[in-house]
Design a protein that fits this description.
heterodimer; A: 335 residues; mainly alpha; ABC transporter involved in vitamin B12 uptake, BtuC; two-stranded antiparallel sheet; 4 strands; globular; B: 326 residues; alpha/beta; Rossmann fold; 2 domains; 6-stranded parallel beta sheet; 6-stranded mixed beta sheet; 10 helices; elongated
Chain lengths: 335, 326
Amino acid sequence: MRNNNVFSRLARGQLLSLTQEKIVFLLAVLLFAVFSFSLTGFASVDNLLGLLYNVSVLGVLGLAMALVVIGRGIDLSLIATMAISVAWSLTLIRDGVSIEAALLYGMLMALGIGIINGWLIAYAEIPALFCTLAMGTLVYGFGRIALIPVDVVYMPADPGWFGALGQGELFGIPAPVIVFVLLSVVATLVLRYTRFGRYTYYMGDNYQAARITGVPTRPMLVMQYGVTALIGFAAGLVTAASVDSMNTRIVNSTMIYDVILVVVLGGIGLSGGKGGVRNVIVGTLLIGILLNGMTIMNIEYTVQNFIKGAILLAALIFDSLINPRDEQTAQQGDI
Amino acid sequence: MKNKARTLIASAVAVACLSGNALADDKPLAGKTLAFVPTSLGYDLTDGWYNMLKKELEPEGLEIIVRDPNWSTATGAQALVSLISQKPDILMVQNPDVQSYARLLRRAENEGIPVLQINMRSSVETTAFVGADWVGIGKAMAESAVASCGDGSGGSGKISLVQGPLTSASSVYQMQGINEVLEGRDDIRVVSSQAANWDPSQARAITDTVLKQHADLCAVIDFWDGQAVGSAAAIRRQRGGEDVLLITNGGTEQTAACDNIANGTFDKYMTYNVREQSTDIAELVRKILTEDIRPGGERLDRTTAVRVIDADNLRDDSCWKLSDYK
């Protein structure tokens, strides 16, 4: 403990050390500064709130993904779970089921998918990557065949309080941003101060050791994937409320990679056991600033992709130069 | 004994033939097969064509098989290859773009299978085509924007385009139509042209940002109704749905189109009528199969007219309902 004061840390270079999270954060601040000076209207409160609104769903999905990634897993079925469970809820509402009941059914469906994912990974010992990849296709297929008649399901004419989730605001702050902030706070508290949170880190760091020391790893896995699916459902509700519809075609899009990107970019390694909510927020902010600035500049989409890719690669290269992997930091199973 | 058996069999065959003939009169398309390769089943256009055709032609004895590639051009091409070797009596294809299926369609025709293309022309001409063209839709949307925002309209002339994926042919052709109309015009300024990838959330984010940058934006042209609900949400949130014109297009299904025109979500809706198209398709299929039209012979062509639906000309029967056919 004695060695841990500011001076000794400075001497060891720890205080100045740049983690990936810090690099990405600095990059975000830099871009923010550049856009604020060069783009009229970028730094207005109105535009910044819009910026946050535009990435809040991505942020919420990032939180969901972060939970399983910290536990050294991954959930590729997240978008399918979100789209199909919410689209089914909307279909039920259109068919005359009450809003509350329909949302409850959708939520139970999402939870069910998450629990099955967790069970297959924990007890059948299928690698998370393949299990959730297959589950995503299965859920989408089943949903489109049996539950949802068309690929875009529209909100009913009078969605009541449900609609406020997308269009409403509190003290001028749009509801989706509030949802993201609230979920971030809850996720931080859970990860830091609950047994569930600590166990998740233990499992991500060393699954076998966690198991031997008495962590109930299998029930934990089931819970992790269940909670992830539930957060996904919440993200879907916000999406549906903000665009008055749920478009199931997003399952075929690259959205799942964007979510993984936010998580990895923020500095949560895919090898597990590292990172937290702050990383997700930093990653989300960088993407949000980039997208907003490039839209204002009306940059062509292909060029946007190029710039996005270049900046991400730069962040990763910078990180690997400053924090090189070695035998101590690398883990077996690093992706 | 042997003779008796022979007579029995012969008479049985005769009866079977006779009843078969009687059946053929009743069902002129009996024994014929139509194979359908859409871009993907499960959205209003393709579900509309498929279910309407089933309703119309199956009672006449036609067997309809469908191979659903779910938006994958590669899967669609594989489906075509296997269908060509199965030799259906007619092949109905909704091209994802002008090039991808061109060689396969030529091969099918060379092997004697007539090909009917719907809603998207391939670079190869085949026996029949039914459909609207995307360039025409693009033109109609741009003309509508010019009328409401250009010189003499009192509008600012500023418009924003929300495209589909840049790899999607329908989006590219719509863009081409828009460019043809806007070329050389000084009164219209495209302040933003972005791709939203058929995702309403992305359309919402783009339109939201553009509206904040351009307080006097006159119109948003969104390339697909399923995506345009996102643009509409952004307009409603910032402008209460007033002032900014939202122009879009789609397959005119009740919940996707008319409900949204009626409640003010869409201002101008460019449409080709799926019902009309299905009638055209059914007619051409009948003609090809009964008159035995072979590839390389007569070319049949039905272009669907592009219409504009808005709150003023909206009628109860302007749209078709998927639930009536499923």
